[in-house]
Structure formats: structure tokens, C-alpha cells
Amino acid sequence: MRIGLYPGTFDPITLGHIDIIQRAMVLVDRLVIGVAINRDKGPLFDLEERVAMVQAECDKIAARTGGEILVHPFENLLIDCARDVGASMIVRGLRAVADFEYEFQMVGMNRALDNEVETVFLMADARRQAIASKLVKEIARLHGDVSKFVSAPVAEALVRRFA
What we know:
alpha/beta; single chain; 45% helix; five-stranded parallel β-sheet; 6 helices
């Protein structure tokens, strides 16, 4: 069974993330969405809220594709999380060249820690390349319309958070 791990903070999950999840489903038998507990980033939504949002979006994708998607919170090293869930592949989304430099360093470190786990990069769809959770939160904070960047339930959660 091919198991992939798609990690991130998903604060919040965006249409860009959803695009990567849908396309990663073609590559694996099971996709694990690793929701990172990253205290350094100071997330807008707590872990339970982020997991619930990701789960709701993934349930829709799994129902549509018939694939298996699991949501797994983690706070350890990414490579250890991959081992914990039995993943042989880490899926990463790239939006721009700027993402590549950081991701390239991460691949090197992960390969040094465990050369059995491959990293696969998926380019964001051209319509989704500008979407970043940080920018979505800023637009929502300033009471802008985020409906082009996140699903309706996530947009509603952002509106409630910044009300």
C-alpha cells in the first residue's frame, strides 16, 4: 500500500491545499494529512479547530474520489511522523520559486534522517498559486472577501473569528 503524508499547519486549510490533496490522491492508496502542532507560528485556530476543518474538507474529497484520507495531528519531526503513519512519500505543494529553496533544504535534511522516505513536489494549480494561509488570514482580519481562497465553511469560520 502506497501511503503519502501531506504535512502543514493548515491555518486555515485553503483551496490551494485542497488542490494538492486531490492531486496527491492519484499517487497514493492512503493519504495522511499531517496537521502540525507548531507553537512557534502562533496559529489563529487551535489544533482541534484546524483538525476539524481539514477533516470536513477531506471527507468531501474522499467521498468524491473513493480514496482513503486520514487526518493526523503531529508535533514531532516530520520524518518521524512519516514513520509513525507508515508513509513512504511526503507530499509537498509548491507555489513559487521562493518555496523551492526552503523545500530543497528540508528534503536534504529528511533524506539524511531517513533515505527511504521520498519527497514529491506538486505544483499548485495556476489559479491557486497566490493563495497562502497567511494572506487569507490578513484579508479576513481586514474584513475582505476570502471566498475565492477557501471553502464556504472555512470562510464562515474566519468571519466568526474576526467578528
